[in-house]
């Protein structure tokens, strides 16, 4: 592969080599010193795997273009890879790259039922089950739309569903995505550059030059001779790392849990609430990530406050007024719903956090294996949900006790402007429903807060109890 790359104009290969490393397996080793930001490798446009190149191929292109509806980017690249792998002649350079690819992957779609069951209750468990069914449906569709129509190009013994799953995993784990200046995006696979492993300790350092079409890798940190060279896939949680790339990170600081908030259009006052969601930068269906650093994001509360507005609330709220508490009953209802929901989600996990920790400590699941990886996904998601539940419980206790109204603020209260969680704080003098860490934050937040402030103050004057 390296000879073909050099002949095709790749730059930097003399300073790098493929090597096996104890923890990560095969990767790329530096043969010289690199300073952070220095260009390490450039793969020219002409030998990248792209949708454009697939459609430009004189044999493959016409078959791809005939598919109706048009193929997805993932399917196009997967078919392109399988097509090259199936050829007995020609495509020598690309075939040398395919030969260098792993023969198997450890992403979650390849887990046995017992291995996947270790992370029962996680979003990964649900998504993997759905993904397996979707792959079967998509493959059947490809057989009907393209494989069966061009059997001379796509012999079914080389385009089985297992081949298709392998090719999809190649695209997921080795593809690079870039957003272009015009707002469009491109996904590509770059030979040799796709051998670089992930490390969160380096800066994101792979770059696509839209003018030349070349892919370059810069040094994400200083490297010495013999060091493994890394790229950074981004701040990804373990559930996504395992689904797409086939590995996890112990105690991943980016672990998260995605919750989906949805309201059916037939719900009461849906149109009025939809306007409020839009003005708040939300929609009637939202997916929001709970994280270790922000287990209960403000947008979760904003969405649910709007969802639970009644007719009397809607008559006075004309624009987004959900940054702070609307009224006591609305806030208690929202927080109680969250506590109940988080409890339900945590009860659905097949193995509770403490038991998983004991199993991992006792090596019940062999380190580095599929079940071990699934256990780490479950650990991460349970930790996030427990933090979210605790946060909701504390806020609910504060709302029910009325401490915020009287100035006895919860220790988990946050500045309405900057989200600072350590005091001292000051109450809004008018509505006494939100707090600020400084006068500067109060002034900065006034434009957003003034409507809800007016609503709460009016409600108080009309006899509504606000604790």
Structure summary:
This protein is α+β, with helices and mostly antiparallel strands. It is 44% helix and 12% strand.
Task: Describe the protein in words.
This protein has 467 residues and is an alpha+beta fold. It is built from 17 helices and 13 strands. The chain has helices spanning 2-7, 51-56, 60-66, 73-86, 92-100, 113-117, 123-147, 161-174, 238-244, 270-279, 298-307, 311-314, 328-347, 353-361, 370-401, 403-406, 439-461, and strands at 16-21, 25-30, 39-43, 176-179, 185-188, 197-198, 206-209, 214-218, 228-231, 256-262, 285-291, 426-427, 435-436. A 4-stranded mixed β-sheet has the order 1-2-9-6, with no helix packed on it. A 3-stranded antiparallel β-sheet has the order 3-8-7, with no helix packed on it. α4 (73-86) crosses α8 (161-174), α13 packs antiparallel against α15 and α14 packs antiparallel against α15. The longest helix has 32 residues, at 370-401.
Summarize this structure as a short list of keywords or feature phrases.
three-stranded antiparallel beta sheet, 17 helices, globular, alpha+beta, 467 residues
Helix content: 40-55%
Q: State the oligomer.
A: single chain
Biggest beta-sheet profile: 4 strands, mixed
Rg from C-alpha positions? 27 Å
Strand content: 5-15%
Would you report the number of β strands?
Answer: 13
Structural class: alpha+beta
**N→C terminal distance:** 71 Å
N-to-C order of helices and strands:
HEEEHHHHHHHEEEEEEHEHEHHHHHHEEH
Q: Helical segment tally?
A: 17
Q: What sort of overall outline do the alpha carbons produce when their principal axes are compared?
A: globular
Mean pLDDT, to the nearest integer, reads: 89
- Major sheet: arrangement of strands: 1-2-9-6
Which stretches are poorly predicted, pLDDT < 50 over at least 5 residues?
A: 403-412, 458-467
């Amino acid at each position: 592969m390296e000879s073909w790359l050099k002949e095709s104009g790749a730059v930097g290969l003399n300073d790098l080599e493929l090597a096996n490393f104890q923890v990560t397996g095969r990767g790329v080793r530096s043969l010289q010193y690199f300073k952070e930001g220095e260009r390490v490798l450039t793969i020219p446009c002409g030998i990248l795997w792209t949708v454009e190149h697939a459609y430009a191929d004189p044999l493959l292109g016409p078959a791809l273009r005939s598919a109706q509806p048009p193929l997805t980017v993932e399917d196009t690249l997967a078919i392109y890879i399988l097509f090259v792998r199936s050829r007995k002649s020609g495509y020598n350079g690309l075939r040398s790259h395919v030969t260098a690819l792993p023969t198997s992957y450890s992403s979650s779609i390849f887990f046995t039922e017992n291995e996947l069951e270790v992370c029962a209750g996680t979003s990964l468990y649900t998504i993997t089950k759905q993904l397996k069914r979707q792959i079967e449906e998509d493959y059947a569709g490809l057989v009907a739309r393209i494989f069966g129509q061009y059997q001379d190009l796509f012999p079914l013994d080389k385009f089985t569903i297992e081949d298709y799953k392998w090719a999809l995993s190649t695209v997921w784990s080795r593809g690079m995505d870039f957003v272009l200046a015009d707002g469009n995006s491109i996904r590509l696979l770059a030979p040799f550059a796709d051998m670089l492993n992930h490390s969160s300790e380096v800066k994101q350092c792979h770059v696509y030059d839209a003018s030349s079409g070349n892919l370059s890798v810069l040094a994400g940190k200083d490297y010495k001779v013999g060091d493994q060279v890394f790229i950074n896939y981004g701040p990804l949680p373990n559930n996504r790392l395992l689904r797409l790339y086939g590995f996890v990170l112990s105690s991943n600081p980016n672990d998260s849990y995605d919750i989906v908030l949805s309201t059916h259009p037939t719900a009461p006052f849906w149109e009025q609430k939809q306007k409020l969601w839009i003005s708040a930068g939300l929609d009637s269906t939202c997916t929001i990530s709970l994280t270790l650093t922000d287990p209960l994001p403000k947008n979760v509360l904003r969405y649910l406050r709007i969802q639970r507005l009644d007719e009397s609330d809607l008559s006075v709220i004309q624009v987004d007024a959900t940054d702070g508490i609307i009224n006591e009953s609305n806030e208690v209802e929202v927080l109680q719903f969250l506590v109940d929901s988080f409890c339900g989600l945590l009860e659905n996990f097949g193995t509770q956090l403490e038991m998983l920790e004991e199993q991992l400590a006792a090596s019940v699941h062999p380190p580095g294996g599929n079940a071990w990886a699934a256990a780490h996904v479950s650990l991460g998601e349970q930790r996030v949900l427990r933090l979210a539940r605790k946060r909701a419980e504390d806020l609910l206790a504060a709302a029910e006790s009325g401490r915020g109204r009287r100035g006895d603020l919860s220790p988990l209260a946050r500045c309405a402007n900057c989200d600072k969680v350590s005091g001292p704080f000051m109450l809004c003098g008018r509505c006494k429903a939100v707090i600020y860490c400084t006068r500067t934050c109060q002034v900065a937040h006034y434009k957003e807060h003034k409507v809800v402030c007016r609503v709460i103050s009016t409600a108080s004057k009309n006899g509504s109890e606000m604790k």
